[in-house]
Amino acid sequence: MDVGRIGHWVISPPQELAKCMMQTYEGFDILQRYVDDTILDLGGKAEVTVFHPWRQKEDF
User: Fold this and answer.
1) What per-residue confidence (pLDDT) applies to 53?
2) What band does 1 get if pLDDT is binned at 50, 70 and 90?
3) CA-CA distance, 21 to 28, in Å (whole number)?
4) Alpha-carbon separation of residue 59 from 22, 33, 44, 46, 51 (angstroms)
5) What pLDDT is stored for residue 56 in this prediction?
6) Where are the domains of the chain?
7) pLDDT tens profile 16-30
8) Measured between alpha carbons, how far is 13 from 29 in angstroms, rounded to an integer?
9) Which residues contact 13 (CB under 8 A, 6 or more apart)?
């Protein structure tokens, strides 16, 4: 089975959306599905999601 090209993608939903969604388990679930669907829509065939809720740069 050919898995295709292996790569590293960073999906960053809008910061305010992410902050809002991470307040509940249901919201986090929706956010996770958003990321999964985005990867599939962009042509990903498989994924391992590593969640990290911080940014390298502060948004002011």
Assistant:
1) 67
2) low
3) 5
4) 17, 24, 29, 31, 19
5) 64
6) 13-51
7) 888 888 899 999 899
8) 14
9) 21, 31, 34, 35
How many residues would you count in the chain?
Answer: 60
pTM above 0.70, yes or no: no
Cβ-contact 38, 16 below 8 angstroms: no
Task: Report yes or no: 59 and 15 within 8 Å, Cβ to Cβ.
Answer: yes
Q: What is the pLDDT of residue 31?
A: 87
Residue with tokens 């249901």: 26
| Separation of alpha carbons 60 and 42, rounded Å | 30
